[in-house]
Design goal:
17 helices, 30% strand, Neuraminidase, five-stranded antiparallel beta sheet
Amino acid sequence: MAAADQEPHVSAVRPRSYQDESYLHGFLGTVGDLQKAGVLQDVVLEVEGRRFPCHRLVLSAASPYFRAMFTSDMAESRQKTVVLQGLDSGVFEEILSYIYSGTLHVSLDKVQPLYQAADLLQLDYVRDTCSSYMAMNVERSTCVGMYKFADVFSVKFVQNRCLQLIHRNFAEVASSEEFCSLSVDQLTEIISHDELNVEDETTVWEAVVRWVQHSRKDRLHHLPSILLHIRFNLLTSDDTAAILDRPLVTEDPCTFETVRNFVQKLNHNSKPRLGLTMEMALLHNTERGSNELLFMNPQEGKYISCSYRSEDLPDSTAMTVTSDNNIYILETTELEDDTLLFLLRYNHVENVWEQAGVSAISRIPGEDLRYSSKLLLELDQILYYVVSDRHDSASLKMRRYNPLINQWEECSQLEADESIYHCEVLSCSSHIYFLSSTEVHRYDPREDRWSKRTPPWIIHEVYTAVAMGTEIFCTDRDFSQTMVYDTKSDRWHKLQGWELLHPEHPVMDLYVCFFVLENQLHILLNYNSNFQEEDIYLVYVYDRSADTWRDLKATLPNKNYVAFTSICPVARISLPYLKKT
């Protein structure tokens, strides 16, 4: 064949895209240098009389608020100087520092005005970071003020965290001056909750009286709507007589009649307060035929075991505790043509497990029930069912529950690069994270999409992990490599591991499990040695300031207790009801 007739050579090399990481990181640094040098600035923003020369392009790229301002027909798009109202100049200086550097400095005295400014300027990262910071730093002295702020701006995550602290410390919070500054709606929301930690209902009544007396003329007319939330049926006859004898009641005939009607009506549908709650980790006894749970708080030296009938607490594959303190477990039911999973919910008052009223979960196509690992997670008050299959070891399948239609819906599937046999899946800061020693993936529920993040690398395997605030802590099977992952910065840091108290005694069959109790990182260790017949239980709490682990001298019963999964669930448990049953 002549050369002219030969087919031309077609290259098998495909085109590729390359990303210059140094350019991406260096670009923001260059922009910051231009700002510091005062070069190419084309607009001046004036806040409380202070002038801030800036770049329209940079502001527009960072904030939809500025983008709309400078790219529309608004008058500001043509002005050299733009006056911004409703902002603090010092706070705006911090905002500008973030826009030009990507670094945000947050403190308790600045976090609320920072959030307010970010909300106005539509800076999602600043707003989300501030809300996470507030949620992590809620204290008894600040919970009422932070609750009021979160209520105004509808920051539900912070609002719920504040309510939890207010409920647990109600007597102390109700005696504070700031409690009297609550609105009537905020007051009624607080006292209407079952979780209110009060020994008796007179504490609630006295708090209401104090709130009304603080501004009696303006608040007395709210009393009838507030009384609906006081559970008078929980009071003794002496208590009700004392209420009717209070000056607030006796000094006004109309008020006396109103209160007397409520007291005598005795709304018997009111549920008892759960009160006197304590955060406790939940373990289960793995001995054959056992349906026993152990509720423990090693810090307080509390260990309470409860046994249930097999039909009330069947063999379960997963347990989770939601942000509103509901405890769910998965129950597997075998049918002729399918296997269904049902959710049981814990009834705190009766100390029993009941059907949750949630539709059953059918088996995911291709799921091998014998070799699959199941998880139940909650993210922003939505339940997720997660399955990893050891036969299909690079695939993670997930469904989420839609309460509006009472159905489970498919989510985006994760295809990992390597085996996911030693991995953890957990929720943290509005995302779900998949962690292994070589891979980290983050699931965004708003986009139903997984994205890659930075893996820990130096850890041999991820055996247990737990989220606390915006951080994730994980360790290996030997508790020798412990790492913390900052989900905001996508960075890992090494923590101090554990050294055996008696290294000359070889440890066998070490079991480790992280849990977070009272906002502190804990680890449960169970092992045996050649020198002791019984299993040894140890519980350590992590002291972050000293980077050390402290032994809590735990005294667990000598039984084989483990968590339902590699993460030990923690819930607020009502001690009176638990002990009563």
